From TrEMBL:
Family annotation (InterPro entries): SecE_bac (IPR005807), SecE_sf (IPR038379), Translocase_SecE/Sec61-g (IPR001901)
Record-linked Pfam families: SecE
Family listed: Belongs to the SecE/SEC61-gamma family.
Protein name from the UniProt record: Protein translocase subunit SecE
Subunit structure: Component of the Sec protein translocase complex. Heterotrimer consisting of SecY, SecE and SecG subunits. The heterotrimers can form oligomers, although 1 heterotrimer is thought to be able to translocate proteins. Interacts with the ribosome. Interacts with SecDF, and other proteins may be involved. Interacts with SecA.
Protein's organism: Moraxella nasicaprae
Predominant cellular place of this UniProt entry's protein: membrane
């Protein structure tokens, strides 16, 4: 009897948890730091869209295209770094880790299954395409008779 119970407990896989809090609990927390980081990120993203239009007026080196691209990329990266340090950013990182764990659990199809399913999809696309083409010709003919 105890062997069956041990076997059942071994068969049932325990979920792997990365954090003690759920992603939703972390994402819904608010703080002054989050507000400040969100404002910085939004300001950096807005500034990155305005670099090529306004910066060359005030800074001579900004007339170079590569300088503009570099500043734009730096502002976007800065914005993403600011967002990564918010509670929502840490919840997103947890979500990505959990998604990676779930991807390891996926049973991927074999090469033969993939080829078979691909041909089935292609064949169905051809059949449905032919049906739509026939219906289109019929409706064009009917509209031509009416008009």
């Amino acid at each position: 009897m105890s062997d069956n119970q041990d076997k059942k407990s071994v068969d049932q896989k325990q979920p792997i948890t990365i954090s003690k809090e759920t992603v939703v609990e972390v994402a819904t927390r608010r703080s002054g730091k989050d507000f400040f980081l969100w404002i910085l990120a939004i300001a950096a993203l807005i500034a990155s869209t305005l670099v090529s239009q306004y910066l060359p007026r005030y800074w001579a080196q900004a007339n170079d295209v590569w300088t503009q691209i570099g500043i734009t990329v730096a502002l976007v990266v800065f914005a993403f770094i600011c967002l990564a340090f918010t509670n929502q950013g840490s919840a997103f990182k947890t979500l990505l880790k959990d998604a990676g764990i779930e991807l390891r659990r996926v049973t991927w199809p074999s090469k033969d299954e993939t080829i078979r399913y691909t041909w089935q999809v292609i064949l169905m696309m051809i059949i449905i395409g032919f049906i739509i083409w026939v219906l289109d010709n019929i409706f064009n003919y009917l509209i031509g008779l009416i008009v």
